[in-house]
């Protein structure tokens, strides 16, 4: 009995040590990431200020050049007026005539029609928006890199998942190897209505249950207009109408109507995705209370349920959707992790 307790103490101490190491690593990575982001923001801010100042300098130079040219014309005209006034005082008419002819021929100051000349103020419209858009693009690239690393990390916790025919609704068909599921055109006859089987919607659970540590699996959703994926508590209601939400023991995301993505939270959360996921990765950290969904090929975090309280075994949950006259006939396929 004493030995068991000593072993348990060692186990707890080991977990604390691992937790501290994970915390130190995450803090170091976090500091590096936010330092990089701060530098990116500062670079874009400096570029924005430089762009605005260069535009202002250009406008100011154009205005100064215009003013300088007009002042030169004024000076030339004033000089001409002075010369004419001096000549008007001369009593030598021959000299006056020669001087006037000389002024007209050789010293006519060039003048310009300034009525149509203007110096428009510099336009800064969209300057800040463009700068922020460029910053967003830079940050998006950094996020993509981070998620790629994150996906590779969680893929290390890959588990083997197969579908449990005892839970399969009579509207769906499972492959012989238990790796893919699709909705049938018609109900499958002869299936016993056992307690484990879903009775109302085309749902099926995984065979393997999980109650600790971390797990990850990937599902191909290519070619489908409707699907739902996630995990469910082992004790979830299988009969009658089911409301999919964490309160009822379901942590899922889904596609409906061909292009509407949602997280089945309470209330439902609309997901704005830039591309259609072809393969979805599902990651669960049981002890952390975390369920995350990834677009594997795009390296995008789709959604995360955090602060979850599981308290019992979890099972992978699949809903291939209805047949819809063949528009949703493609299967959900559990694929080997890391295989493109």
UniProtKB/TrEMBL annotation:
Domain of life of the source: Eukaryota
UniProt keyword annotations, A-Z: Coiled coil
Which InterPro entries does this one have? B30.2/SPRY, B30.2/SPRY_sf, Butyrophylin_SPRY, ConA-like_dom_sf, PRY, SPRY_dom, TRIM/RBCC, TRIM8/14/16/25/29/45/65_CC
Q: Name the Pfam families on file.
A: PRY (PF13765), SPRY (PF00622), TRIM_CC (PF25600)
Read off the SUPFAM superfamilies from this record: Concanavalin A-like lectins/glucanases (SSF49899)
Where are the annotated coiled coils located?
A: 9-87
Residue stretches making up the B30.2/SPRY domain? 141-337
The cross-references to PANTHER family, in alphabetical order and at most eight, read:
E3 UBIQUITIN-PROTEIN LIGASE TRIM
Name of the protein in its database record = E3 ubiquitin-protein ligase TRIM39
Originating organism = Liparis tanakae
From the broadest rank down, the organism's phylogenetic lineage runs: Eukaryota, Metazoa, Chordata, Craniata, Vertebrata
């Amino acid at each position: 009995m004493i030995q068991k307790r000593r072993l348990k103490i060692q186990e707890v101490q080991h977990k604390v040590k691992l937790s501290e190491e994970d915390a130190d690593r995450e803090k170091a990575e976090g500091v590096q990431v936010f330092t990089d982001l701060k530098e990116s923001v500062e670079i874009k801010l400096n570029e924005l200020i430089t762009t605005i100042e260069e535009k202002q300098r250009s406008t100011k130079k154009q205005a100064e050049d215009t003013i300088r040219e007009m002042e030169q014309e004024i000076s030339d005209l004033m000089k001409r007026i002075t010369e004419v006034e001096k000549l008007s005082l001369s009593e030598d008419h021959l000299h006056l005539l020669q001087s006037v002819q000389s002024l007209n021929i050789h010293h006519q100051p060039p003048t310009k029609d300034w009525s149509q000349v203007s110096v428009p103020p510099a336009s800064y419209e969209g300057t800040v928006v463009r700068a922020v858009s460029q910053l967003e693009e830079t940050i998006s690239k950094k996020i993509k890199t981070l998620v790629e690393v994150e996906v590779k990390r969680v893929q290390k916790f890959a588990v083997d998942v197969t579908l449990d025919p005892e839970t399969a609704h009579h509207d769906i068909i499972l492959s012989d190897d238990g790796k893919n599921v699709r909705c049938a055109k018609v109900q499958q006859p002869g299936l016993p209505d056992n307690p484990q089987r879903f009775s109302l919607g085309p749902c099926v659970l995984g065979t393997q249950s999980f109650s600790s540590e971390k797990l990850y699996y990937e599902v191909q959703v290519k070619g489908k207009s409707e699907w739902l994926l996630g995990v469910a508590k082992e004790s979830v209601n299988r009969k009658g109408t089911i409301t999919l939400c964490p309160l009822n023991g379901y942590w899922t995301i889904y596609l409906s109507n061909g292009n509407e993505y949602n997280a089945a939270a309470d209330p439902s959360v609309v997901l704005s995705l830039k591309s259609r996921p072809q393969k979805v990765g599902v990651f669960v950290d049981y002890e952390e209370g975390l369920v995350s969904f990834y677009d594997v090929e795009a390296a995008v975090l789709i959604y995360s349920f955090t602060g979850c309280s599981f308290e019992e075994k979890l099972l992978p949950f699949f809903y291939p959707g209805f047949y819809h006259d063949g528009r949703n006939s493609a299967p959900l396929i559990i694929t080997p992790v890391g295989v493109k």
